[in-house]
Amino acid sequence: MSTTETRALIDEAKAKLVSKPKASKTNAKAVEATDANTANALLAQRSEIYDAKKKLEAELAEIDAIIKDMIGNNDELLIHGAKVASIARWKETSLITDKVKELFPLTEYPDIYKRIAKSRMTVH
After folding, report:
1. How confident is the model at residue 81 (pLDDT cuts 50, 70, 90)?
2. Domain boundaries, the chain
3. DSSP helix/strand/coil, 56
4. Quick check: pTM over 0.70?
């Protein structure tokens, strides 16, 4: 897709995204965008950045895999005697939480569980 086509698609999305809300059941936790154009512009820009980030992360993972293959079972990669990359290896011990929940149910042992408020934004 050319830059012009992409820009036209983004402009079209900006015009339609929030200005024509879907008919759905009433949701007390929903909020209507006060400035639809700005909200659409931000969502379009976020989408472009997110796609670029995914592409770059995939390329980075491929490059890292090649460098790790070059290092192999050694610890360091040298170029003209200078260390340019290294691998640190260690072992970790983790807790099998399913077994803990089975042996110590929340209702019987509430003091060993910790409740945390978290949030995640999903763009649809």
Report:
1. very high
2. 3-90
3. helix
4. no
